[in-house]
């Protein structure tokens, strides 16, 4: 995990996003234990309350479950939940911005489609 302490994005959100990314990319599999808040806070010199706030975002979303006295574990459907969340955000984060820039550049729809097809082939 890497944290950007100069970013306007709060550290707790960076914690949540990085653990989420690790789940999505298979670093943490369903049923697998994730590092404790204490481990993360010590390794990266982050306040434990900040780490806990980030982890609790994932607990609330149902991606991680806490087992009292045992630890925190990736839920069975966490990766699919993340995929659905990202699909829902895809238009706003990428497509809308992409097409807005394409319009500024006076790219035709045909040219935009050709660029996308080329990117898929790369």
From TrEMBL:
The keyword Transcription applies. Residues 9-77 form the HTH gntR-type domain. Keywords: DNA-binding, Transcription, Transcription regulation. It comes from the Bacteria. Pfam families: GntR. It comes from Levilactobacillus acidifarinae DSM 19394 = JCM 15949. Transmembrane segments: none annotated. GO terms for molecular function: DNA binding; DNA-binding transcription factor activity. This is Transcriptional regulator.
């Amino acid at each position: 995990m890497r944290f950007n302490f100069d970013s306007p994005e709060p550290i707790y959100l960076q914690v949540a996003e990085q653990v989420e990314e690790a789940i999505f990319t298979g670093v943490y599999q369903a049923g697998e234990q994730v590092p404790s808040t204490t481990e993360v806070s010590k390794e990266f010199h982050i306040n434990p309350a900040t780490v806990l706030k980030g982890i609790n975002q994932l607990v609330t979303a149902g991606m991680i479950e806490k087992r009292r006295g045992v630890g925190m574990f990736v839920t069975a459907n966490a990766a699919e939940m993340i995929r659905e969340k990202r699909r829902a955000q895809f238009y706003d984060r990428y497509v809308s911005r992409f097409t807005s820039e394409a319009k500024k550049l006076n790219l035709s729809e045909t040219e935009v489609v050709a660029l996308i097809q080329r990117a898929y082939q790369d």
